[in-house]
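Appendix C reproduces, verbatim, an entry submitted by the partner laboratory led by Prof. M.T., so that reviewers can inspect both the input and the predicted structure.
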Amino acid sequence: MLLLIAAKQSKEATTISRVTEIDKSRLQVFMAFQKDPLHLLESTLHDGDMVYLGNGRKRPAYIVNSPEFVHEILVSKDAFFVKGRSSSVLSRTIGDGLLTSEHERHQKQRQYMQPVFYKERIQSYAQIVLREAEAFANRLTEGQTLSISDTMMQLTLTVIAQTMFATDLEERKSELAAAVNDTIERSARTLFSPFIMPLGMPTPGNIVHRRAIRTLETMVYEVINDAQIHPDKYQLSLLGLLMDTKDTNGEGIPIEEMRNQMMTMLLAGHETTANLLTWIWYSLGEHPEVEAKFHKELENVELTVGSAMEQYRKLTYTNQIIQEALRLYPPAWTILREAEREVTMLGETFAPHSSFLISPYSIHRNGNVFEDPLTFRPERFAEGAGSWPRFAYFPFGGGSRSCIGSNFAMMEATLILAAVGKRFRFRRTDSLPVQPEPLVSLRIKGGLNMEPIKQ
């Protein structure tokens, strides 16, 4: 009898659902997300592996907290999902590019763009990054107050233009950075609103958005036109690769698709790195012990000796600082997926059109994985990174849609920090509270003002 009872209890234990339901109405969930999405995500982190938000039977919605479920969605059952709403919103600006295309089309685009990020290419980009970072440092004046968020945006925009488009945007970087900012803000508002207003409607927000798109497109088409006339100049850039790519029928990539991929790089390729760098300068200023170790490492590295990549590989602690910033302040703070058809994951079955919200921001703050999860401590990446579950830490996503430029981004951030940090440290010029602002990328709300202090 005892054996039968034990067997029954064991069977019941194995059928316990890993899906729990949030203790809020659909309206309460919507209002909470609109008010503070990061707080909602953090507050439900330990409510279950998969938290059901309601939203009705036709389009049920879930918050994903378990690294195992993240692996299922991004890797094992990737073919069952699309990006859904996020692609629909972003495609209004960047078209059907690498960030928004789906399935076979996405695989094809990723395949022809991958060579841009090969090791040999990144080595040549490193020299450009170092050159632009040192030029930026040369322009700094001790004691001046500057918006770190704005200047990092302009610096990374310059780097993307030089490396991906072989183009100097020095005279237009302020205008273009502002246009990128407008598209990001308008896209974020649309993404988190209950209805997607057609971009053609003449609302004040849409007028700003369309004007920003025209500003970026003007530059993109000018560069494409010049590349058609002077192809040799662009040979080693993304644009040169796009112009040389042919399909199995010998057909080249259409101009519109080139435009889409260049717009994708403009938005996804520099805004995320700029926000990451802003968070790092803030974190260094708030943690003197980390800042001291950072500058100590820089004393032993001569950036102008040998290749930039050789020096990059020596910056071990700087790399850990970046990894820790990516843990606490991941630019891609949320990942959205929608099931195209019924899918079973880890014994749970989910209906077609179910939507899943995966947040690296909240998952990276799990105290069951990371000791003192809210503490900025880069050393943790030298101590126990290998012991963490897969997808307990995933700042660049994962699976077929992982960030194609992750190695480039790490190199770029490291060399910018090193080149500027060799000359300056930064201190805040006000004591206003710093708050994260979750738009398309995670930024500091209202920006960050700091002053450079010579080393």
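The chain has 19 helices and 13 strands. Additional entries are available on request from the coordinating office.
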